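R.M. (postdoc): so does anyone remember the format we settled on? I'll just put the structure tokens first.
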């Protein structure tokens, strides 16, 4: 079954490739840690038999509107950083396959009031969990300059971080920066027009990652995946920027995030996963033409040792 490409909520990237990589059997226990619009989860359910189980995570309240009625689905309204606790609570340890489609959904980008988009005007929010306390407004207006430097240096690839921080700091002294378009207007002339969208997307990306503590949550989930996936089970992760992909790649290769595998007294490295392919799987030219948001996606697949 192919995902309908006119999905209102989200067009899954590398859909066929990621579903196939899960190697679903009729009685599999599968975890989808990023339910979103339910595109992947619905296809997983299509491939499961009556004895199969799908546990799906999502912290975004909007995802609740997409839940399908199916006795085999266990929906968990939570951040995936609590993977182990919830999988254990629902007595679903020994998972056969886990899927993570990271990043922001098309829906979240397109709904202006969520504050994720550089195109749509809205409040500086960017929370995936709309009950969380930290917002983009607080990062932009309340973070000391030192912390803004940390955010933009850590979570974006910007050539002029000092200028970005200085400009934000100067403008917020005059009045609060409250909306996405205000932030865009303040920063858009820092780079040539051809590079404007890429530059602004990097700025928004860094703020969003900070607001949602995305890198720490990803590391928590990956470490816990090694505890819940059974030997021979699959870990399938789609990432959308180099920071995410580097963490995933290092964890699969080394079992750590710094790229240095732990070794025993004999110098032998013990890693929980083995990569199925040496290089990540990337979208075809045809898929990128259909869905430009797919252009930065990388799919990595690993098997539990």
């Amino acid at each position: 079954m192919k995902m309908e490409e006119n999905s209102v909520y989200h067009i899954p990237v590398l859909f066929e490739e990621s579903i196939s990589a899960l190697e679903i059997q009729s009685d599999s226990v599968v975890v989808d840690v990023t339910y979103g619009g339910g595109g992947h989860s619905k296809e997983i359910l299509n491939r499961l038999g009556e004895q199969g189980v799908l546990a799906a995570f999502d912290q975004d309240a909007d995802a609740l509107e997409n839940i399908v009625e199916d006795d085999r689905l266990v929906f968990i309204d939570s951040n995936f950083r609590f993977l182990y606790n919830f999988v254990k609570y629902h007595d679903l340890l020994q998972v056969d396959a886990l899927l993570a489609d990271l990043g922001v959904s098309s829906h979240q980008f397109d709904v202006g009031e969520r504050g994720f988009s550089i195109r749509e005007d809205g409040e500086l929010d960017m929370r995936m969990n709309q009950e969380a306390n930290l917002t983009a407004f607080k990062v932009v207006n309340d973070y000391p300059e030192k912390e803004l430097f940390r955010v933009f240096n850590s979570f974006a690839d910007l050539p002029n971080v000092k200028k970005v921080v200085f400009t934000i700091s100067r403008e917020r002294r005059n009045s609060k920066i409250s909306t996405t378009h205000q932030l865009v207007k303040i920063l858009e002339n820092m780079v040539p027009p051809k590079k404007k969208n890429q530059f602004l997307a990097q700025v928004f990306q860094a703020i969003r990652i900070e607001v949602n503590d995305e890198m720490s949550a990803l590391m928590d989930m990956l470490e816990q995946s090694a505890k819940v996936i059974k030997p021979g089970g699959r870990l399938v992760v789609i990432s959308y920027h180099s920071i995410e992909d580097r963490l995933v790649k290092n964890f699969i290769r080394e079992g750590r995030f710094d790229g240095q595998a732990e070794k025993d007294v004999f110098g032998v490295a013990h890693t929980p996963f083995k990569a199925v392919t040496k290089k990540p799987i990337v979208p075809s030219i045809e898929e990128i033409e259909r869905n430009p948001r797919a252009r930065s996606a990388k799919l990595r697949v690993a098997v539990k040792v």
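R.M.: ...and that's the designed sequence above, right after the tokens. Also worth knowing: Residues 196-212 form the longest helix (17 residues). The radius of gyration is 20 Å.
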